[in-house]
Amino acid sequence: MKRRAEPASASQQVTKKRRDDGSSDEESPLLSTSQDSSQSDSHSDQEDHRPGFSMPTISHNAPDTDSPTESSSKFAMYNSVSQKLMAKMGFREGEGLGKFGQGRKEIVEASTQRGRRGLGLMLQGFQGELNIDWQDEPEPSAAEKVDWFPECSTEIPDADELKDWMALGPRKLKIEDETEFCTEDLLHTLLRCKTVFDNLEGEEMRRARTRSNPYETIRGAFFLNRAAMKMANIDSCFDNMFTNPKDSQGKNLTKEREGELLYFGDVCAGPGGFSEYVLWKRRWHAKGFGMTLKGPCDFKLEDFFAAPSELFEPYYGEGGVDGDGDITRPENVSAFRNFVLESTERRGLHFLMADGGFSVEGQENIQEILSKQLLLCQFLTAMSTLRTGGHFVCKTFDLFTPYSVGLVYLLYLCFDRVSLFKPVTSRPANSERYIVCRSLKPGSDAVREYMFKVNLKLNQLRNTDSDVTEVVPLSLIKEDTDFYQYMVNSNESHCAVQIKALAKIHAYVLDPALSEPKQADIRKECMKLWGIPDKARVTPASSDPKSKFFELMKGSDAESFQCKLTPLNSSTLEKVNHVLDYRCIVGGGEQIFLLALGKSQIYTWDGKMPLRWRKLESFKLELPRETLLSVEIVQELKGEGKAQRRINAVHVLDALILNGTDVRDQHFNQRIQMAEKFVKAVSKPSRPDMNPIRVKEVYRLEEMEKIFVRLEMKVTKSSGGVPRLSYTGRDDRHFLPTGLYIIKTVNEPWTMAYSKNSKKKFFYNKMTKESTYDLPPNSVAPFHVCHSERLFWAWVDGVIVHDSQTRIDPEKLSKDDVLSFIHQKYQP
Fold first, then answer.
1. Active site residue 816
2. What is the pLDDT of residues 379-404, one digit of tens each?
3. Known catalytic residue at 355
4. Is 75 exposed, middle or buried (0-12, 13-18, 19+ CB in 10 A)?
């Protein structure tokens, strides 16, 4: 049996050991290293989810030893030409070459050397037979079946009931007696099969495993590692419940509120393959939050070649970016919960992914025991950050102990449906599965608080001889016969698959000529089913801003962007004849274009010819590549007097391209809404060192008076004690306004009007005399119309002339002039 050791430390229990090829220890060859990051499905009976599955046949009689058949004439193995040449050299069959016949009489045999073993070394206990029939395994297929636990009818327990559920006992470091949820015969056969590989060199195991697994060549496709493909596999098998989450009635959760981002979490998951897949699928329509151990196993956002990592915000617990990311520390879980709630308007995540694991080399059989606190803390983090109706997926290993099964039972009580699922992307010989939980029920706070207390107790008992042995009484689990039977069936089915896979690898080690012939076909079949393009992973091509600009514009002329602002004065005011066609925005600086090529590669252009893009210097901001915005760089102020703080911020006026999505032909209101969603996704509240980016507040022109309510006189550091006009935004930041943009959003020949009879606004075509309450598609003013027909009401030195009595220049408009004109043109 294996060498036993003490459980890993807290920090070790969330670490994934990385290899040079980017794989994790979960992907290590060891049967022994059953840490391959895989996902799992539940089995409600003893049959695997692939067709044709059967339990392995365990033979107690060793098969006959193969005896090589010899040809009557080994000389006959050579062709006629070779035979003639050898005869000329004096060769006679049965005699050796050489003057005295001293040469070899037998053909030189092929080397039977295995890996890097010493010549002739035979590994004790490995050369024999496992006596397991693995050759009747089902045909490999991309099709997978999902089996759910039966629906739970038990009510979620309250705090009074839960307080007596935790049980303590002596710490144990063996698994072979855990037979409450699996037969002794299967469990011991599994442990025996694992132990056979203890002394085998890793490279031999890797090669045999690679040849024996029909799904091995799927690998990571164009993502940074295999974990991304596991998430793609799980997401597809569960009807895209993560990238397109729905509630139990089938309602899309991200459509609950118009324009809401898909909020997700990713814990214990460096370097971040799960998140790369989700962001590849949803791009700027999603926002991710992650926590993992700092150090070599941290998120590697710079390696997100397939997705915009700027939409992902790592967080490391207490201390924010200065925390350590150890999920077993209660203060880190609490800090991450608060951070997520603050970043999601107190609503929580749509789903959480957890993929924690650590090296258990030499202790593979007790991986479940060593990982017990890590498993609890991942479950606790889900209960702490998910919104009602949110989903959860988490990697598990063996689930033989009452402690582990009790944790599963707590999730079974708190979610609408739960499944234990092993996807085909998880190597069949390892012990990992994934628990998939759909739709968190309301009223689960008591269970969350109970899990938190269990974690506190585990930390108290660390380095002692005592341990938490149960989180749900075993008798209670067994009384729930539906749950209990599913759990037993799932464990035994999983054991059976593992045993066959181990026996197959054993056979492939012994016979290097064996190989899986369908790996290439299965890979193509799976990729097609999961919607993953079959292309290579490549570093994104670099581009200069001028070339990228013309690529994004798709042939549009740069001259169309240099339209000058039309000043709003007494001569141009009549242009605003149809008040309902316009929106207005408070300006605070010069309008420029901003082009992002990924991360901090951000360039600006003032709209003047010749076209020259300049790097945005002395500015800390990260934006996804292929993004083009119309913006102002505004100096924001907070506070007054000597305590006043200043910071430069990007204020978005309009959006043209959002991470490759061309939105120029959308309605202005829609573009602003998408820009707000985009800015939410790229903003990083945990990074106060970064310059903020915000979308301008937009007002209807007929509601201009609302703007003046937000204007007040404030003293700034540079004003010499003289109060200056200031505009305060939604987030308590204020800036010195330069004037008002007035933007036409309805395209000719359409205009908007108000019906006094129906008390509703409608669209009217000035050429055809057609009128309609519905938005006509050709009435939408695209970006170039909004941009070229802008008017700007300048407030000189931040001063608004309030009435005609104080006006010096007759062309300049006063506040009374503009408001009077609006009221005259629009009287609902």
1. no
2. 999 999 999 999 999 999 999 999 99
3. yes
4. middle
With beta carbons less than 8 A apart as the criterion, state whether 447 and 471 touch: no
| pLDDT tens track for 359-376 | 888 888 899 999 999 999
Closest CA relative to residue 277, chosen from 264, 261, 268: 264
Considering only residues 368 and 137, tell me which one the structure prediction assigns the higher pLDDT.
368
452-474: burial string, b at 16+ Cβ within 10 Å, e else: bebbeebeeeeeeeebbbbbbbb
Does the pLDDT at position 17 exceed 50?
A: no
User: Token pair 């004096």 is at which residue?
Assistant: 90
Q: How far is CA 381 from CA 268, 339, 372, 384, in A?
A: 11, 12, 14, 5
**Where are the CATH 3.40.50.12760 domain residues in the chain?**
12-56+134-161+179-530
Residue 118 has pLDDT above 80, yes or no: no
Angle at 229 between CA 224 and CA 233, to 5 degrees: 165
d(CA 597, CA 735): 28
Which pair of structure tokens corresponds to residue 213? Answer: 């697994």
* Location of each CATH 3.30.470.30 domain in the chain: 564-745+780-825
Q: Minimum mean pLDDT among 150-164, 241-255, 624-638: which range?
A: 241-255
Provide the token pair at 570.
Answer: 């007494």
Per-residue pLDDT band at 715 (split at 50, 70, 90): confident
Q: Any catalytic annotation for residue 809?
A: no
Point out the catalytic residue in the list 16, 17, 194, 230. Answer: 230
227 confidence band (pLDDT: 50, 70, 90): very high
Q: Tell me if 104 sits within 8 A of 96, measured CB to CB.
A: yes
Catalytic residue among 246, 287, 372, 395: 395
Strand pairing class (760-765; 750-755): antiparallel
Contact, 796 vs 811, CB < 8 A? no
Rounded Cα gap, residues 728 and 398, in angstroms:
57
Concatenated DSSP letters for 553-589?
HTT--GGGG-PPPEEPSTTTGGGG-SGGGEEEEEE-S
Q: pTM for this one?
A: 0.84
Residue 602 to residue 617: CA distance in whole angstroms: 9
- Bridge-partner residues for 312, per DSSP? 288
DSSP states of 436-474 as a string? EEEEEPS--HHHHHHHHHHHHHHHHHTTSSEEEEESS-H
- Please write the tens of the pLDDT for every residue from 34-82: 333 333 333 333 333 333 333 344 333 334 434 444 444 566 666 788 7
Catalytic residue among 355, 398, 581, 817: 355
What is the second-level CATH architecture of the domain 12-56+134-161+179-530?
3-Layer(aba) Sandwich (3.40)
φ, ψ of residue 530 to 5 degrees: the values are -85, -5
pLDDT for residue 82: 78
- CA 197 vs CA 193, 641, 643: distances in Å: 8, 72, 67
CATH class of 564-745+780-825: alpha beta
